[in-house]
Amino acid sequence: MTDLGIGSSQQVTDKLIMKLPHNRRYEATQFSKRIYLDPSGWFTGHEAVPYLEMIQKAMWDYHWIQIDYQKVDGKIVSREVAPYGLVAKTDFWYLIAKHEDVMRVYRVSRVRNMQITGRNFVFSANFNLSQFWLAWCQEFEGRPALLFSNDSRRKRNFKAVEC
Predict the structure, then answer these.
(1) What are the backbone angles phi and psi of residue 120, rounded to the nearest 5°?
(2) pLDDT tens-digit series, residues 73-132
(3) Which pLDDT value is given to residue 105?
(4) Separation between Cα atoms, residue 95 and residue 129, nearest integer Å
(5) 51 in Cβ contact with 71 (< 8 Å)
(6) CB 162 within 8 Å of CB 93
(7) C-alpha 25, offset from chain centre
(8) Which of 93, 96, 135, 148 suits 112 as a labelling partner, its CA being 20 to 30 A distant?
(9) What pTM does this model have?
(10) Which among 162, 160, 61 has a CA at the least distance from the CA of 118?
(11) What digits encode the pLDDT tens for the residues 29-86?
């Protein structure tokens, strides 16, 4: 959360509690005192994500971006992508973006250079970030992915590998 300038998890929790009806605040406060959700992983350092805020801005503005991305094998590729969403998984940020009509997952820390093109893209009204992420993770981990579509015959339009 702090990578996006939102504040710590505790600050976000405190803000959310204050938005609750007064009669529910005590219960929520007690819950937050007794249960702690730790989003960080073990033995991993914080990855630098210098382009995270620019990616977020392009995402909110529906702008295509040009990225130079370092793949897992070290090779750097240039891609023009439509940034659909961001996912924070423990200490790692992932960009969910459309490239050549396929949804792909990019680790934000591997973006080596980025430019906002200024060209707009049309966000698919049918896209659901949480459903996409859950299906992608299941397939990435080698488990059968559940289809979240009403049309079970529809082909999944994503790559279940980290680009």
Answers:
(1) -90, 150
(2) 999 999 999 999 999 887 789 999 999 999 999 999 999 999 999 999 999 999 999 999
(3) 96
(4) 11
(5) no
(6) no
(7) 29
(8) 135
(9) 0.69
(10) 61
(11) 777 766 666 666 666 667 889 999 999 999 999 999 999 999 999 999 999 999 999 9
Q: Is 56 left (phi over 0), alpha (psi -120 to 50) or beta?
A: alpha
68 Cβ contact partners less than 8 Å away, ≥ 6 residues apart: 76, 77, 78, 111, 112, 113, 114
Question: Quick one: angle between helices 9-19 and 22-34, nearest 10?
Answer: 160
Residues in the chain, total:
163
Question: Structure tokens of 30?
Answer: 């007690």
CB atoms within 10 A of CB 143: 9
The DSSP secondary-structure symbol of 141 reads T
Structural Rg of the chain based on CA atoms: 18
φ, ψ at 43 (rounded to 5°):
55, 30
